[in-house]
Write a structure and sequence with these properties.
Elements: H1 9-29, H2 38-46, H3 53-60, E1 72-77, E2 83-89, E3 93-99, H4 113-119, E4 137-142, E5 145-155, E6 160-165, E7 170-176, E8 181-188, E9 203-210, E10 227-233, E11 239-245, E12 252-254, E13 260-265, H5 274-277, E14 282-289, H6 290-298, E15 312-314, E16 328-334, E17 338-342, E18 348-352, E19 358-363, H7 364-371, E20 382-387, E21 392-397, E22 402-407, E23 412-417, H8 418-426, E24 434-439, E25 444-449, E26 461-466, E27 482-488, E28 495-502, E29 509-513, E30 539-543, E31 546-554, E32 557-558, E33 562-566, E34 570-577, E35 586-590, E36 595-599, E37 604-610, E38 615-620, E39 633-639
Parallel strand pairs: 11-15, 31-34, 33-39
Antiparallel strand pairs: 1-2, 1-29, 2-3, 4-5, 5-6, 6-7, 8-9, 9-10, 10-11, 12-13, 13-14, 14-16, 17-18, 18-19, 19-20, 21-22, 22-23, 23-24, 25-26, 26-27, 27-28, 30-31, 31-32, 34-37, 35-36, 38-39
Bound molecules: [4Cu:2S] cluster, dinuclear copper ion (CUA) and calcium ion (CA).
């Protein structure tokens, strides 16, 4: 194969088509796309029949036998569904969805008092928000690998960050970011910049994408708008500090030593119209010196904005020209970059060019040198800027020195070698940095490799989130699913293994070894202050119009067979599931009262409602829990 150091659209496409034939042929021979699209069928007809046994067994890894378990977890952003999806890989089976920002009728998220408290309510008790747009999910680190404590996910619409406890796979906190619109990139830190003993995540960095007036008044003059970069405390989920910046934030990355965080910027022009946002030939990757920012906050060198009490330090160009005191550094990156990713060897951040066909490799040691006054120009921290193809967006790593970048316009993933790219950039025009290309279907956004954003990157699998699926699945009307593709990257060449339809629009995800998590399958009764610990505590407890109904569930019965209320009662119903056995979940629904939620083993949940409709209402269990599940009912009599 000829080396294409400067891929033009034509040669990239021509080459892609060749590769596409090969890949599709391999896939269809192994039965993966046996009957799902024309290109697969015709490619297979033309195929020489030389699909290797190796490719066959590689494809088989995605087809687990019944009862077999996956070897990797995938945490997927749920997109507009406002949840986090849990996948098993390599099969790609969706195992769970963790509701965060948006109500979920299955578990009663947004129905129970406990979930509403996490989600946030208005004074009338209704949910503050019903919509969300999640893009990025990342998990907490220790020693450069995931430690299984937490994951975080962003809501771009309402500028909220949610934390997921990875022991119970539940969302336990949601924080609103003050004075931020379009909260986009998110990344936990991996260590403390000062205290070496803290080799785990204690901060979560959040990038504000849209610039607005600060405080937000209806000002038309866009030159007065600014964006903020926010630090949230990983434990308390309180907002610790913010940085006022020029330009905007997009994606976020953090260094392994905790000293640096960065965001790519596509709107250094600070344009308010999209034409303006593309005016400049170069934008930036903005670095934050975490230790200096925290020292500035400690020293009181901050202001606050509007009603928010959060300290805001000045990270604009004007205030940070002296490297010795600078809190921020703006590294120049070609036209409207998208994505910034940290290499697993801890040395580089890579920005993809988006409107430039390049990736820019920035050496972190040199950025730190600049802050120490040892590097004259911050742009000298750029050690490579190489052409990859059209529309580069995101980069993943295999731990063997290779990077994998999505090419949105070329509908490809390009595998390239970082060291070779650096050599090429230095002037060695024989350095062959492009290793392989593979067509994906179609228009990929994020990709991530197994363990990619950890020091334990293992270079086995790559998942690619394709924004368009077009002809890859049975047609289901105008709204197409997206196509999440799964690729084997263990060899020199990438091999496409599987397509998976997914509801829009996940954007980002992480994949890691299953033994990094030890989920609990049964709750602890004592963790719920309202728990009804014994069926004998059940009953209707009246205080004027305020009524508390205490109920327990144990298959196949609720603790009370019936209970009475009066019309107009303000009811709190508390249900504890006293079944302690794994997988024995009960649900409870109240017809006409718009109530349904589940209680898992030893979980307690509660709801409030006004008994405004007289009559007989059968509260029934909604999870098939027992042979007598259908009989598992309680009669609620509301007297008129
Ligand atoms: S962004 Cu969607 S493809 Cu929100 Cu991470 Cu790049
Ligand atoms: Cu309990 Cu069905
Ligand atoms: Ca721009």
């Amino acid at each position: 194969m000829s080396q294409d150091q400067k891929p033009t659209t034509e040669n990239a496409l021509a080459m892609g088509r060749r590769k596409f034939m090969n890949t599709a042929a391999l896939a269809s021979l192994t039965g993966l796309v046996a009957c799902n699209n024309k290109s697969g069928a015709s490619a297979s007809a033309e195929a020489s029949g030389s699909a290797s046994a190796a490719a066959h067994s590689a494809a088989d890894v995605t087809h687990l036998k019944p009862g077999e378990l996956d070897t990797y977890y995938g945490l997927w952003s749920g997109g507009h569904s406002g949840d986090m999806r849990v996948l098993g890989l390599p099969s790609g089976r969706e195992i769970h969805r963790i509701p965060c920002f948006v109500p979920d009728a299955l578990v009663g998220w947004g129905i129970t008092n406990e979930s509403k408290k996490v989600m946030g309510t208005r004074p009338d008790g209704s949910l503050k928000y019903n919509v969300a747009d999640t893009h990025h999910t990342h998990a907490s680190y220790k020693d450069g690998n995931y430690d299984g404590r937490y994951a975080w996910i962003n809501d771009k619409i309402n500028a909220r960050v949610a934390r997921i406890r990875l022991d119970y796979f539940i969302c336990d906190k949601i924080t609103d970011l003050p004075n931020v619109q379009g909260f986009h990139g998110i990344f936990p830190d991996k260590a403390d910049p000062v205290d070496e003993k803290i080799n785990y995540t204690t901060r979560v960095f959040c990038g504000g994408e849209f610039s607005i007036p600060l405080p937000n008044a209806g000002i038309e003059d866009g030159s007065k708008y600014r964006s903020l970069f926010t630090c949230v405390d990983a434990e308390s989920m309180e907002v610790r500090w913010q940085v006022l910046i020029d330009g905007n934030c997009d994606l976020v990355a953090t260094s392994y030593d905790g000293k640096l965080a960065a965001t790519n910027q596509y709107n250094t022009e600070m344009g308010v119209h999209y034409e303006d946002m593309m005016a400049a030939e170069r934008d930036a990757c903005l670095f934050f010196n975490v230790a200096r920012i925290e020292a500035a906050v400690k020293a009181g060198k901050f202001k606050t904005i509007g009603d928010s009490k959060v300290p805001v330090v000045d990270g604009t160009h004007a205030a940070n020209s002296d490297p010795k005191t600078a809190l921020t550094a703006y590294v120049s990156v070609p036209k409207n970059p998208h994505g910034v990713n940290a290499s697993p060897d801890a040395k580089y951040f890579i920005c993809a060019g988006k409107l430039s066909p390049t990736a820019t490799v920035i050496e972190l040691a040199k950025v730190l040198d600049w802050f120490d006054g040892k590097l004259e120009k911050i742009d000298d921290a750029i050690v490579a800027e190489v052409e990859l193809g059209l529309g580069p967006l995101h980069t993943a790593f295999d731990g063997r020195g290779n990077a994998y970048t999505t090419l949105f316009l070329d509908s490809q993933v390009v595998k390239w070698n970082v060291d070779a790219a650096i050599k090429f950039h230095k002037g060695d025009k024989n350095a062959k940095y492009v290793v392989d290309r593979i067509d994906v279907q179609y228009q990929p956004g994020h990709l991530n490799a197994s363990q990619s954003e950890t020091r334990a990157a293992d270079g086995k699998y790559l998942a690619v989130g394709c924004k368009f699926s077009k002809d890859r699945f049975l047609p289901v009307g105008p709204l197409h699913p997206e196509n999440e593709q799964f690729i084997d990257i263990s060899g020199e060449k990438m091999v496409l293994l599987a397509d998976h339809p997914v509801r829009g629009e996940p954007h980002d995800f992480i994949i890691f070894k299953r033994d990094l998590l030890r989920p609990k399958q049964v709750y602890n009764l004592d963790d719920f202050p309202l728990a009804v610990k014994d069926p004998k505590e059940s009953g209707v407890f009246r205080n004027g119009k305020k009524v508390t109904v205490k109920l327990t569930s144990q298959a196949p019965a609720f603790s009370m067979r019936e209970f009475k209320l009066k019309k107009g009662d303000e009811v709190t119903l508390i249900l504890t599931n006293l079944d302690k056995i794994e997988d024995l979940t009960h649900g409870i629904a109240i017809p006409k009262y718009n109530v349904q939620f589940v209680v898992n083993p030893l979980e307690t949940a509660s709801v409030n409602f006004v008994a405004d409709k007289p009559g007989v209402f059968w509260l029934y269990c909604t999870n098939f829990c027992h042979a007598l599940h259908l009989e598992m009912r309680t009669r609620m009599i509301v007297e008129g």
